[in-house]
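Exercise 7b. Backbone tokens:
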């Protein structure tokens, strides 16, 4: 039981933005969940249930004011969040708060050794949402809330968040910018939305040095990104020694994506996964929780997710 990979996948994640023309569309969930089923992986995984995240849990990383605004926008039928470029439908609060709650169930499973690691096939994504502002297709910062929850609920001291989405995880960076207990590492295309993530953004105050950005130009791929994980991230983890490794797993850094221009292959995502599992095996009791972020080419998203999950299940060489 403790050596299994857990899966959070629930068809409610396809209901946000149903019927709307948008790149962050319900078919993304179908592509990932369907591919995990067809590959035979899903049936070998321990299933994680969804639940509604409480306002207190959402408030681990978001301001009361933002939660009030976001709820009002959804309830009044606004087509998008008034704080930024995130389309919403009437059920978006329900779906997004269940995504967060499911992720927290996955954190519970991994922190209590009921599973070794977990993959969360959630929509909407989260890494662009700051404490006070949903933006970039994101309502709640799923990965940031997971990190804080692991600290508050399970006593994790230090958490690594590694973000390989083609976009910079500005929200995650912002939430932990002055916090030395959460290390944020990101590889991303530069220049690109949202415009943050320069190499000289390294954290502030006590958090200085606990943010590590590796921006790369369009056309970058395995050499740059696998290289950054191996040569920039891994050595720093010897000093940081995370108790938990979280992954912002965006597959828009794969070749053929509609929004990104990186050239990572499915095998490269397996390799990135193995590098992070190596960090987790060395420091974190092998605890890894991975969350879906972007990825807009449906077939590429599906095959990259399968490769990533297969690597989570295979373990460290
Ligand atoms: Zn992205």
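Sequence design result:
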């Amino acid at each position: 039981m403790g050596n299994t990979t857990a899966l959070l996948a629930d068809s409610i994640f396809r209901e946000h933005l149903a019927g709307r023309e948008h790149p962050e569309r319900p078919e993304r969930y179908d592509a990932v969940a369907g591919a995990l089923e067809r590959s035979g992986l899903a049936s070998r995984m321990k299933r994680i249930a969804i639940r509604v995240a409480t306002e207190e849990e959402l408030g681990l990383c978001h301001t009361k004011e933002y939660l009030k605004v976001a709820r009002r926008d959804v309830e009044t039928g606004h087509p998008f969040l008034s704080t930024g470029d995130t389309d919403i439908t009437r059920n978006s609060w329900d779906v997004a708060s269940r995504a967060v709650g499911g992720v927290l169930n996955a954190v519970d499973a991994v922190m209590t050794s009921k599973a070794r690691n977990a993959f969360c096939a959630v929509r909407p994504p989260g890494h662009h949402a700051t404490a006070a502002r949903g933006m970039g297709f994101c309502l709640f910062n799923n990965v940031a809330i997971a990190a804080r929850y692991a600290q508050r609920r399970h006593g994790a001291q230090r958490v690594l968040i590694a973000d390989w989405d083609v976009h910079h995880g500005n929200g995650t960076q912002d939430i932990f910018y002055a916090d030395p207990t959460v290390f944020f590492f990101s590889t991303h295309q530069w220049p690109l939305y949202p415009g943050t993530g320069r190499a000289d953004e390294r954290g502030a105050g006590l958090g200085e040095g606990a943010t590590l950005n590796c921006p790369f130009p369009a056309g970058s791929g395995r050499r740059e990104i696998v290289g950054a994980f191996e040569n920039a991230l891994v050595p720093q983890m010897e000093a940081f020694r995370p108790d938990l490794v979280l992954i912002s797993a965006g597959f828009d850094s794969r070749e053929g994506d509609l929004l990104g221009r990186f050239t990572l292959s499915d095998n490269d995502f397996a390799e990135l996964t193995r590098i992070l599992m190596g960090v987790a095996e060395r420091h974190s009791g092998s605890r890894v929780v991975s969350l879906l972020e972007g990825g807009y080419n449906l077939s590429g998203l599906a095959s990259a997710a399968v490769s990533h999950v297969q690597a989570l299940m295979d373990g460290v060489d």
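Instructor comment: The pocket of zinc ion is lined by residues 165-167, 250, 252, 293-294 (CB under 6 Å). The CA atoms of residues 161 and 246 lie 5 Å apart.
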